[in-house]
Structure formats: structure tokens, C-alpha cells
């Protein structure tokens, strides 16, 4: 993996981790408790493929603002910046 590929992979992983954190927080609010690591495992099983595919076609992949909202994997974003 070259430097650019490694950089892009790290960006993807951070966006996915943020998405998991946000979804886990929402689930915790519904359950009124921390859903725990089991939720993270289930999220990965159910959503990792979808998230990767959405990321690959999203503006977030190349956007300089990706840290703010990349976990939303938008295909068209008014905050997109190169």
C-alpha cells in the first residue's frame, strides 16, 4: 500500500468509526443504556459493506471537510471542499 492509499484508508476507517459511534449513541438513547461492544460487532456485520460502498461514491472520500460530516457519506454535499 503506497502513502496515498494508506492515507485514504485511514480516512475511511476514521469516518466509519465515527458512523459507528453516532449510531451506537442513538441506539443507547433508545435503550437508555450503553449497547456495548456487541452493538459494534453487529453494526459491522450489518453495515460495513453498505458503508464502504456509500463511501466509495461519496463526496466525502476526497473532501477536506470530511472530518465534520464524512460519516454521513453524502453523494452531493454543499460543504464539499477540495
What does this 3D model show about the protein?
It is a single chain. Helix content is 66%, strand content 0%. By secondary structure, the protein is an all-alpha fold. The protein has one domain. It is globular. The mean pLDDT is 93.
Question: Which characteristics define this entry?
Answer:
mainly alpha; 82 residues; globular; single chain; 66% helix
How many helix segments?
A: 3
Report low-confidence residues grouped into runs of 5 or more.
Answer: none
Number of domains: 1
What is the CA-atom radius of gyration, in angstroms? 14 Å
- Sheet with most strands: none
Q: Helix coverage percent of residues?
A: 55-70%
Report the strand count: 0
Given the C-alpha coordinates, what overall shape results?
Answer: globular
Q: Span from first to last CA?
A: 23 Å
* Percent in strands: under 5%
* SSE string, helices as H and strands as E: HHH
Alpha-beta content class: mainly alpha
Mean pLDDT: 93
